[in-house]
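Usage

Read records sequentially. Each one opens with the input sequence:
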Amino acid sequence: MSRPSLDFWFEFASTYSYVAAMRAGDAAARAGVQLRWRPFLLGPIFKAQGWDSSPFNLYPVKGRYMWRDIERLCAELNAPFRIPDPFPQNGLNAARAALAAIEQGFGEDFVKAVYLAEFGEGRQISDAAVIGEIITRLGHDAESVLERAQSDEIKARLRSNTEEGQARGLFGAPSFVTEDGELFWGNDRLDQALAWTQRRQEPQVRP
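and closes with the structure output:
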């Protein structure tokens, strides 16, 4: 029997997506669930809600709480953290490169490395040189991956991901969507999403 799958929708500008990405792969493996890494863009979704920036910028009190919360969560995970400047960063090219990396079999490692560069080291992930350096460090050919990332096919796939996310009701990141369409929003809902996925695969006892 094939493992049940769970879609992990993430945005590179999202702070809580960073935390989720650092633990989602291991958590899914322990649960016997196949995690599908789904990069998308929050910009069009926020725009549809009338926002021109992150809600953590639009609502400063909420933003101050978020930064302290991320510090605590990263400390628990023993993950580095620093506030990037600017925030949010432009993750368009990183998201396209993630799709190319997923296609070539090193998506999870690439996504985690980009998040560490952004939120652990304060680097500019909109810079193609930074993305290329990450790809090289992971043992892959940066030129070919970046070329693939800028292909019409990958660009269209990212647009399609974003449109699919909107159609599924996503309004923030990280989000988790089960095979039966159940939506769980937020890093703190990862375990619940995995548990739901497991239960849906349990054999039904017939009377």
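Summary fields computed downstream for this record:
- The domain at 5-201 is CATH 3.40.30.10 (Glutaredoxin).
- The beta strands are 5-10, 34-39, 175-178, 183-185.
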